[in-house]
Amino acid sequence: MEKLNLDAKKVLIISIVLVLIATGSLIFYYNDKINTQNKEFNTKLLVLNKDIVENLNALQQNLEEDIFSMRNNLTLQVQLVDNNLKNFRKKNELEINTLNALIDEIEKQSDIKLNELKDELSTIKVKSQDFSSIIEDVIQSVVSVGTNKGQGSGVVIDDMGFIVTNHHVVDGADLIRILTYSGKVYDAALIGYNDAVDVAVLKVNAELENLRFGDSDDVKVGEKVIALGNPAGLSFTVTEGIVSAVHRKGPNNLDTYLQTDVPINPGNSGGPLVNTNSRIIGINNFKIGGFEGLGFAIESNTVEEITEGIISEYLQQLQE
Predict the structure, then answer these.
(1) Residue 253: how many CB atoms within 10 A of its CB?
(2) In what order do the strands lie in the sheet with 162-165?
(3) Domains of the chain: which residue ranges?
(4) What's the predicted TM-score (pTM) here?
(5) What does the pLDDT look like over 92-150, one tens digit per residue?
(6) CATH number belonging to the domain at 114-319, selected among 3.40.50.2300, 1.10.3300.10, 2.40.10.120, 3.40.50.2000
(7) Which of 10, 222, 262, 319 is the most exposed place for a label (fewest CB within 10 A)?
């Protein structure tokens, strides 16, 4: 009986020892596995940290490059705008200087200062008293046309600022200005012309006194007329004469001219030929060189037909 108890104790002890060994083995195994996993985790963590640092550095470098590029582009744009502003200022200064020079040239050619124009009525030259009652009203509608090419005359035909003159007065001009009898100066635009007949229409942004067209078919040979304009730089001069012939042929071989004995001189071209009823019966155009008393004016019916077409087309374009 005692031997059996002893054997049971040995078996128990051996079992306990085996359990302890097995437990220790398991603990050792799992500790080793945990350590291995910890090492792998730490390694991955280090790699991930390295990737994050590298990505952050790359992102920072890209941002710095983008900022540098944007800064350079902005600098270039600022320089471009600055250069454009400088060029714009230079162009404006050039245009202003050109316009100032044109005003000075008009004053020289007219041989009169702008602030003295209101006193010019007393110097108007008329050979008879037949037109004395209408001159003061008629002269208000006559203008001096100055360009960078030369000078001529014109007449206001509509209170909206439409002016008729000869095409050769403004042909090839870069700048056109008109000077009124009252001394005001306006920039003018060429809105249309007929070079075959030598008629041009100008437009200014102003309301001006205008003259009406008469019927040139009613003009009689021997009828008294006056020519108004700026011949030879003599501002707003009036001369009187008679109609010598009607429906004369001109340089364009068109029989649309009135022949008069009124002197037509440089600067007079484009001015109106007016009858005693204050109506435009012609636009002074040219004279035959070497002969006195051989002046020619484009008949008013021809001028009126051309100008009405030009103005109508101009107003239609504005509406479109």
Answers:
(1) 7
(2) 185-187, 176-180, 142-147, 151-158, 162-165, 199-203, 189-194
(3) 1-110, 114-319
(4) 0.59
(5) 777 777 777 777 776 666 655 555 554 444 444 444 446 777 888 899 999 999 998 88
(6) 2.40.10.120
(7) 319
